[in-house]
């Protein structure tokens, strides 16, 4: 029992560092880009393209994991190498201040190393625990906590109540750290430490050693046959479509709330989204039994629309902006976590892994990828000035109304065409403990979980 607790503790540290690194720079990257590339033509598109790099990587990550970690090398060793190399690339990214194109390519290189590790840490965990249903949620929740703590460290406060001047003590910079390269450098240092730590993790040997690599399966495309079921097809189309407005939140909410409400403490208040996510994860079984799958998914979609309407109509109300952030638990958990449960129950056992991979490609890959390019084009089209309070107050409605309308449209389509009588709330185990990836999923950037 003591050995098992020790293993769980080590895996929890792994998960904490995994998401601390991502949350440490991803949430505030928009504010940083607004500062270093100020005056560049198409600045909103630059931000969108920078955030799209992790979606491109999400599309390609299954190939790297399937080809290398599943067949040739232990997962913990691949994880270590990815984070050590990633540390160097992230540090280099922090030195790029006048070439947006180079910055974007460097971030793509970084995420090509980082995104596969999201699957690797799960593989390492499952290979070393005895009761996944009971033990994995205890490990995974430390990832969400890592994202939350990263927000507190970068903003140097816990929701404005407790000062955490750690970065000021280390760097000597006293204010507006989120607009500097310090978050990137901090994440690079932690990535190096985490990479070395990964070499000490319990072994996770390749699970598919000797098996021929199949690109079609690695991308989850063998699950396409499930689209012959009308309800599953409607679900997949809706998941893809709702992920387009999702990108607006992860890429632009932090610089929005920085300008209109919380200044250099914004990253701390963004963590409220991840706190809400943890709460609603716990409540998912309760709501599933009472609302059922369709209404859970629908409420999640409408929550996205409600959040964007709050941001667009009431940008000068701190309380309503906070409410919009706090809706993240409903937005993310009700749709994406419930969606993962729906896929698990709908897909035959031999296709479940592929179906989950296909679902991730539709959402974190293709949907959010299109969303990041769309938000950049839309911001430039309306001449959004995201670097000032006056700019955001003038442009908030025009900017946020776009994702709000898309979310409403998707919700209406889903309501009209999704009628799945085969999968009801009662078929989903009320004791399940769903833990989803944070930010963009996740995060949350949450959230950018």
Topology (elements, then pairings):
Elements: H1 2-26, H2 29-36, H3 43-69, H4 75-93, H5 100-126, H6 132-155, E1 157-158, E2 162-163, H7 166-171, H8 182-198, H9 215-218, H10 230-262, H11 266-313, H12 318-326, H13 328-346, H14 352-381, H15 389-417
Antiparallel strand pairs: 1-2
Annotation keywords:
single chain, 449 residues, mainly alpha, Growth Hormone, Chain: A, two-stranded antiparallel ribbon, 72% helix, disordered C terminus
CATH superfamily label: MFS general substrate transporter like domains
The domain tally reads 1
**Oligomeric description of these chains:** single chain
CATH architecture: Up-down Bundle
Q: Give the biggest beta sheet.
A: 2 strands, antiparallel
What topology, given as strand order, has the largest sheet?
1-2
What share of the residues does DSSP label as strand, in percent?
under 5%
Shape, please? Answer: globular
Structural class: mainly alpha
Tally of contiguous helical segments: 15
Return the CATH class: Mainly Alpha
Number of DSSP-assigned strands? 2
